[in-house]
């Protein structure tokens, strides 16, 4: 895969992940900031691969799930209210999507996208709706523009992974950036 060997893509991936880590350093510990960088390096790299190949690498997504779970354990310890809310959101969002993916043979949403969404639910917990709304709106706008300028036809498919990762990154960075700005004011 030529995408994996691109120096520019590696630098963009690392830069975006470092931005998320540095911004999160204000409100979290160094260990949490490091897990943020590792999480977003994996996700952004996988999103770029998805944009080129329409395939999410299973081992990358599974590693991101493990990192997200460890990060959540570090942040929430035994706060069962947070864990319960996250589990409920995960079930409400992911179960119907995985069923629709399996029933349609992946034509509407691939299983890899649902697996990626599981990683994001583990990472964001109850804030997953913020990331999901951003992803859906961004994908819709790009699709609509593609249809209007005739770069896409109505049967075209677009990879949804980059939009999920972008929505997640925007949610993480904006939440931490607002927290940082409020502490300065």
UniProtKB/TrEMBL annotation:
It comes from the Bacteria. Residues 38-143 form the Prepilin type IV endopeptidase peptidase domain. Pfam families: Peptidase_A24 (PF01478). Keywords: Membrane, Transmembrane, Transmembrane helix. The chain crosses the membrane at residues 12-45, 57-76, 88-108, 128-149. Belongs to the peptidase A24 family. This is Prepilin peptidase. It comes from Arcanobacterium phocisimile.
């Amino acid at each position: 895969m030529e995408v994996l060997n691109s120096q520019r893509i590696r630098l963009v991936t690392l830069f975006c992940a470092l931005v998320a880590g540095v911004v999160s350093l204000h409100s979290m510990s160094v260990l949490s900031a490091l897990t943020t960088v590792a999480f977003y390096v994996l996700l952004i790299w996988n999103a770029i691969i998805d944009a080129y190949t329409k395939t999410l690498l299973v081992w990358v997504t599974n590693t991101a799930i493990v990192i997200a779970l460890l990060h959540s354990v570090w942040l929430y310890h035994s706060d069962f209210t947070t864990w319960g809310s996250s589990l409920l959101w995960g079930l409400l969002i992911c179960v119907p999507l995985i069923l629709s993916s399996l029933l349609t043979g992946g034509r509407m949403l691939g299983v890899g996208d649902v697996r990626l969404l599981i990683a994001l639910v583990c990472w964001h917990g109850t804030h997953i709706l913020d990331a999901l709304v951003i992803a859906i709106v961004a994908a819709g706008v790009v699709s609509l523009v593609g249809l209007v300028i005739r770069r896409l036809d109505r049967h075209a498919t677009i990879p949804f992974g980059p939009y999920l990762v972008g929505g997640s990154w925007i949610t993480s960075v904006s939440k931490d950036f607002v927290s940082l700005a409020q502490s300065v004011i």
